[in-house]
What does this fold into?
Amino acid sequence: MSQAVIYNPEGKEISKVNLKKEIFGIKPNPLVVHQYVKAYLTNQRQGTAATKTRATMTGGGHKPWRQKGTGRARAGSNTSPIWVGGGRAHGPHPREFSVSLPRKIKLLALKSALADKAQENRIKIIEELNFETPKTNSAVSILDKLGIRDHKILFLVEGKNKNLHRSFRNIAKLTYKRANLVNAYEILNSDYLLLTKNAWESLEEALAG
It folds into this structure.
């Protein structure tokens, strides 16, 4: 059974907890994870790229010169794609790139990402942090004591905490997020998963069903 260590803000080990086997102990499914990541990245595309065709260009209302007798090639409009400054042929136009996946696929991808982190011992749980005022130096100190300061960190918390958020939001390589909003891509894109104790309990409760 996978285990995780609970630390205090001083970086000292308090206890070990068993992670739920049906979440953190499953065999990661690389095919489902690949399918999810591909869909996630596709959904980040805005699809707003657009170019003007010869029909939407300004100008082109008359022939640049007469049809015969000039020694030049025939031309009917200065908006032709073969002219410098003319419209573009077969250029991109706004389109919808979004892809939807079944809920079970998303859930399995999330569990696979969590299981992968657990099997690599890259999950750390910390006691609840209470900052009376925003203190980035204190936040950095906590990461140093945990030995993960120079890694990409996904920090999951439970609920809103303005001072905690302001303390961690400016730390390089760290992503601060509420546990109920996390997705598989963010977990896979981090080196370490850091959770508050409440966030860990909330995540297990949400995914256990």
Summary: The chain has seven helices and six strands. Residues 46-96 form one domain. The radius of gyration is 27 Å. The chain has a mean pLDDT of 93.
